[in-house]
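Troubleshooting entry. Yesterday's outputs looked truncated, so today I'm pasting the complete records for two proteins to confirm everything comes through intact. If either block looks cut off, that's the bug. Protein one:
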Amino acid sequence: MTRFRGTTALVAATLMAVPALADAPYEVEILAEGLDRPWGMAFLPGSQDLIITKRGGAVAIWHHDSGEVTEVSGAPEVVSAGQGGLLDIAPAPDFEDSQMVYMTWVAAHEDGQGTTTHLGRAVLDRDGGALSDLDVLHVVSPGVDSGGHFGSRIVFQDGHVFVGFGDRNFKDFGPDHIAQDLSSENGAVIRLTMDGDIPEDNPFVDVDGAAGAIWSYGHRNIQAMAVHPDTGDIWLAEHGEAGGDEVNLVQRGGNYGWPLAAFGVDYRTGEQFANPHQEGDGFVMPAYHWPPGRDAHFPPSGMAFYDGEAFPDWQGRMLIGNLFHRYIGVFAVDGDQVSSPERLVAELDLRIREIEVGPEDGFIYVIADGGGVPLFRLVPASDD
């Protein structure tokens, strides 16, 4: 097992009066190497093993006791072009009884119009090394002929499944944008029953022409999402356009403004295309955002709240992976207020794809993004 030491580093002055991270050195332990384009991971309840998706269409398990990574059969067939493929995975809340895992993946839309994100679930047979009884619960509509911005992250709350999706990289920065269209589930968070039905109390069920599954909309590309362990609030982070990345607290029926209110600029021209968020504009303000441009931005992937015992000074902090600048941002959260981040693992120079906190050891488990990348974890530094 490869191991080396790191320390936290401050990125910017904090925006609220919270204590900075203690000088808490950590060690990085490389647990597995050579993973091919991993995207999602989660601990399997009742064990310390991780289930991992790979964008090419494989599901694998990292075995805590042996350190081996083995693939399981039965994953859905995917379209992995562009940003597509097999994406997030999450064991059902009743996994120890049902053995079900929920997954998102990209495939052709059922009406033949382009590709789209699918949500489904399957039964995991650990002994047989297989997924079975794959059930497609929801197909995002409409399908789009694009290889970008599929999202997507899965969380569970109050007996429902929430999934966040991207805007499919539409560039028409105006009121007709797909993320502002309530008949489209692209650029939205949806809420379903655990069986994939649309709940009657969703905010737009009775709105003419609206997609009843939508819980919030006006999002650009959601690749980080987590439930706060104390408040039960759902948080997400989404990519901006050349800066303007956002951390958002999800509200029922909220319109998050993309692309009519944004802090980024056009990738192609460097020009501002929308007014920044401001009070009274009718859109939900981000809890935290980055300025325009690529130097200071934070394209996110993966989110977890720290609730372990291994790093007591980090209790309650929000951890989000940074793909472009290659570190984990650690954010203090106070109600709906979020501080500027401090950095972890910048010394590794790895794009960060997903983060989980070990339920038994409190260590921070991370997968990098790309081909031939590692699974690693942060542990408290030893005294020697």
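Protein two, checking that the full record survives here as well:
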Amino acid sequence: MPAAPGPDHEIAIPPALIPRDGRFGSGPSKVRDEAVAALAAVAHTYLGTSHRQEGVRSVVRRVREGLRELFALPDGYEVVLGNGGSTLFWDAAAFGLVERRSSHLVLGEFSSKFAAVTAAAPHLADPEVERTDPGAAPRLIAAPAGDVYAYPHNETSTGVMVPLHRPAEGDPLVVVDATSAAGGLRASARAYDVYYFAPQKCFASDGGLWVACCSPAAVERIERIRASGRWTPPTLDLGIALENSRQDQTYNTPALATLFLLAHQVEWMLGQGGLEWAARRCDRAAEIVYGWADAHEYATPFVAETAYRSHVTATIDFDDRVDAAAVARTLRAHGIVDVEPYRKLGRNQLRVALFPAIEPDDLVTLTRAVDHVIACLVG
């Protein structure tokens, strides 16, 4: 068990050890000040206007065209979006992508939730599930039995990164949960059929929206299932989402601020050099945090194999001499927030986002602040 909490309420972190921006959460994530200012500047002509009119549809168009460029999508791939986030997309995929059965890699909380959705769906056969212990190297399925092969590019709850891949045998649709990976990890469109995500992580926006980059095979599957007559609630109907996205709109009213912040972040990334620039920035962030932990007396990266350590979500374990919860409380009291571990993982650790919007220099300062708090707690 970790050491009993010390008097963390009495610890003062010197101003020199306070990052310029203290937001290190894994979602919702830091939103850049420039994006907020840009939103404020257009508030009177954009916020509170119809999502069926050009003012909002032009922003949806910016999102779709910007993501197509950012991910270098081949001809025939489409950017589809709808309301509800990745959690809702799992439900929509159970109706609109899985024909009979799905196969899942489960590495933590979020990858398990998609498998649970298809297991509960009365119109589908029980899914094939390959489970890996949290933090361990992912165990892949060489020949999936399902017509959908689903896995996360990055398991947000544990900080395990899964290489994008197609199975060695068979030809299922490859459906990748990229919620915390998209925009921060390199991604070749040829490796997937659906790459879906929400914008409140690497894309430094708010939640409530899902986006899916879909291959021609995925588009064909969506249209075929819809034509088959399978009953689907309209808000979960990927065919309806596809039709509306082609008109640069969503089926029902979206959060306009979310759309604008997403468009602004995508264009910021493109202006800096695109996905490769963003991925290199996350690589640098990972070097800072894992390098610090590897050299630390009390800390160690939770993911042992370096090849699978996430470059967008770092999970750092502490030994029993350090109460990580006390460290997080002290940081929060000084405006350094959301470094607590994923609640259901139940480990004595900190979880730190490494998203492109986070300044690497702030991560360096964060590690120094943690060192100061540990020194005060341990003595």
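Both blocks look complete. Sanity check on protein two: Residues 1-6 have pLDDT under 50 and may be disordered.
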